[in-house]
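User: Okay, second chain of the day. Same drill as before: sequence in, structure tokens out.
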Amino acid sequence: MTPDEALKRLLAGNERFVNGTPEHPRQDVERREAVANEQDPFAIVLTCSDSRVAPEVLFDQGLGDLFVIRVAGNVVDPIVLGSIEFAAVRLGTPLIVVLAHSSCGAVTAAVEGGELEGSLPSVAARLQPAVEATMNEPGDAVDNAIRANAWLAVERLLTDDSPLAGLVDAGSLKIAAAYYDLASGQVTPIS
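Assistant: Same drill. Structure tokens below.
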């Protein structure tokens, strides 16, 4: 499957989800048995750990279709990067989608600032570049930072001494940013 075909497949699944006609594909006993000893996901999805953002559901995919990494604010750190590299390099997965979403609590906390408990300051620090990049832009400050953060994550995937850039240059991997609207269920590419 090419990277563009993989993206088309994801967006077609999202369209089914939005329209209320999900197929719930590849979620049966046969599929479970087929992927028990190996995996061959067609897309990697880096998204937020928010409980309302479930990639397999909102893209209407089945077992083994998606390699999903969920972390607050869809931030990229060395562990996340290593997980993505595993799927892209070792499994040959042709597509990475950094999936942001509306009403992200982590980005909201970073925009609002203030005192954060425990390890939350480390998450907010990873989101601060997006907050600063959009600080003077018109529109909603949180939504602007959410979208900017997705693009900054894409840039981090390509610049951290990672083999991903070579795969992109060779045409065997595509990295895209997208935005999930919690109310409508719609996923749209961020350009």
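The mean pLDDT is 95.

User: Thanks, on to the next one.
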